[in-house]
Specification:
By secondary structure, the chain is mainly alpha-helical. It is built from eleven helices and two strands; from the N terminus they run H-H-H-H-E-E-H-H-H-H-H-H-H. The protein is globular, with a radius of gyration of 19 Å.
């Protein structure tokens, strides 16, 4: 087994981790598993593609690659707009569907509704864009050696840096701001937080916006490195939940740590037993950790 699996695993873990942060925040505050989160990833990638095309039509040269990267400033700007749109989509879905079920205390129904919303959004994407894969750029990048027999592309380095930046930003928000303290209070006890004067509804809106934006970032990363297609988020859904549970529900650093473990485990599985077994190996890692520490790596017992 060559050391390249470590680089591949870290890159895969970065993509999984951004989506897993939204999953872990959503579950810790709203107390339900949102199966539509994978479609936020796909929606974000397609939204970025459409906005980038509009920017390219309006501004000549926006698609020209920046330095060694395969993307130009048009995609970078489109990504910011798409993150806002994806957050708005998540917020709209909560307003139209989940909030009504949450008020009735229908936890199981809410989970099933998210599964239905997932299928509906995926079908809409497939209807609008067909099932054919599309790409931000078809330019081929030459992987650069980074030592120890590992090679990465410039895009992959940029996306790892983006993941670190977004992780630091979310962690700072949760630990150093009043909004973050409100989120932690609602995660601990929403009823008591409301009595104490916390705007619980505002916290819920913020969580949907943050989760949607990070899912979009994950979709952009996946689109740049691999391809864009309607099922891209669905294929990433199980690793997202595995990473969130493995790291400990409610822990942002735990979500990233769990994602890196899942990503490296899957990359190792590809080299050892073949790509068809990658998900099985990742879940064996999950089961092994949970048998030793059921709350996950960074989780706390209630």
């Amino acid at each position: 087994m060559t050391p390249q699996f470590l680089a591949d695993g870290l890159i895969a873990g970065a993509m999984i981790g951004l989506g897993a942060i939204g999953v872990t925040l959503n579950y810790s505050i709203l107390r339900f598993a949102n199966f539509a989160h994978g479609e936020f990833i796909s929606f974000g990638a397609y939204a970025t593609l459409l906005i980038a095309a509009a920017i390219g039509a309006a501004f000549a040269g926006s698609a020209e690659a920046i330095g060694p990267f395969s993307f130009g400033w048009g995609i970078a700007a489109a990504g910011l707009g798409a993150m806002t749109l994806t957050g708005a989509l998540a917020l709209a879905l909560d307003f139209l569907l989940f909030a009504r079920l949450r008020q009735k205390g229908a936890a199981i129904t809410t989970v099933m509704a998210s599964f239905g919303a997932s299928m509906a959004l995926r079908a809409l994407l497939e209807f609008a864009f067909t099932s054919r894969p599309v790409y931000f750029s078809r330019d081929l990048q030459i992987a650069m050696p980074i030592g120890f027999g590992m090679r990465v592309t410039a895009d992959q380095i940029a996306l790892l840096a983006l993941t670190a930046l977004l992780l630091a930003g979310v962690q700072a928000l949760l630990t150093r701001t009043q909004a973050g303290r409100a989120m932690r209070a609602v995660a601990e006890n929403p009823t008591l937080a409301r009595v104490a004067g916390v705007d619980v509804d505002g916290v819920i809106r913020a969580v949907w916006l943050i989760g949607g934006a990070l899912a979009c970032a994950s979709g952009i990363m996946l689109g740049l490195i691999v391809q864009i297609r309607p099922f891209m988020g669905f294929d990433l859904l199980l690793p997202l939940f595995a990473a969130a549970i493995l790291g400990g529900i409610g822990s942002v650093p735990g979500a990233i740590a769990g994602a890196l473990i899942v990503g490296v485990g899957e990359a190792a599985a590809v080299q050892i037993v073949g790509a068809e077994w990658r998900a099985a190996v990742a879940f064996l890692l999950l089961i092994g950790v949970l048998l030793v520490k059921p709350t996950g790596l960074f989780g706390r017992a209630d």
